[in-house]
Amino acid sequence: MTPDPSRAEAEASAVAASAARLRQRLGALQPRIAVVLGSGWGGLAGKVDGAIDVPYDELPAFPRLAVGGHAGLVRAGTLSGTPVLVLAGRKHAYETGDVGAMRGVVRTLAALGVTTLVQTNAAGSLDRGMPAGSLMLITDHLNLVQRSPLVDDPGVGGDKRFVDMANAYDPTLAEQARTAARKAGQTLHEGIYVWLLGPQFETPAEIRMLQGLGGHAVGMSTVPETILARHAGLKVLAFSLFTNMAAGLSDESLSHAHTMATAASASERACNLLAAVIPALSA
Ligand code: HPA
Asked: Which neighbouring-strand residues pair with 84?
């Protein structure tokens, strides 16, 4: 497909306008860490001191989220004195098929001077040693959707699109997270996150395949944003909260309601983990 300069300009100006709006609202606050809150992790927003809220609706590069769900909110402030931007609301590829739905968000963060993207999600566990309700540090991923937000991306051309995905999840930040979790007395598993498009859950046969491929967690998010962040030069740290054992690994049947109920009950531990880890990062 031929690059479309008008689309490139429109996206670049939406990013510039979004960064300018955030800069204006943030004043002297200059967060270098942004946190994307997935299901179960939303309580972190309540721990932010001196909160300044900017709805996604005021940011032209940010997605318009599903009607009836959360509107999407950027909350800026501090966590134990560390400046942060907390992003409540993510657009998933399964909603419209657009795997680049978070492109403008990640590029706005980069334009704003954010250097570290902390990602959180809800996932199914592929490993009986990591039960529902437990937390996992993501050390790597499998992009089984085999699609990329950098394809047909008007803002990308040339060599920069060939992003190095070794150490996509930053080993130094991961080590800092391990240490902070240990100090906080929190069990933090580790493993590989598998991205599938969804929105349907997996079949038991698919789950056996993912186990055979070396996956530990399965979910429907995070990977596009990691690719975008690495392309933009941001470091990534990511966590999964297990809301369920994956299909076929337990007797319970999977549903969105079940996922959300487990997410709610494990939420306090998940948010305490983030509150301990974020101020400990060398971002
Ligand atoms: N599969 C995919 N995504 C998920 C799951 C799951 O079992 N649980 C929470 N998100």
From this structure: 33, 77
Judge whether 39 counts as a catalytic residue: yes
pLDDT digits (tens, 9 = 90+) for 124-142: 999 999 999 999 999 999 9
Beta strands 33-37 and 116-125, pairing class? parallel
Give yes or no for residue 162 having a pLDDT over 70: yes
Give the ranges where the chain is alpha helix by DSSP (H).
Answer: 5-26, 93-96, 103-111, 171-183, 204-212, 223-231, 256-277
Q: Which residue minimizes the CA distance to atom 2 of ligand 1?
A: 219
Domain ranges (residues) in the chain: 5-280
What are the residues whose beta carbons fall under 8 Å from the beta carbon of 135, sequence distance 6 or more?
186, 187, 188, 189, 239, 240, 241, 242, 266, 269, 270, 273
Distance CA 15, CA 62 (A): 8
Domain 5-280 has CATH 3.40.50.1580: yes
Residue 14: count other Cβ atoms within 10 Å of its Cβ. Answer: 17
Does residue 221 have an active-site annotation?
yes
DSSP-derived 3-state class of residue 149: coil
pTM for the structure as a whole: 0.94
Decide whether any atom of ligand 1 lies within 6 Å of the 218 Cβ. Answer: yes
Rounded CA-CA distance 272/278 in Å is 10
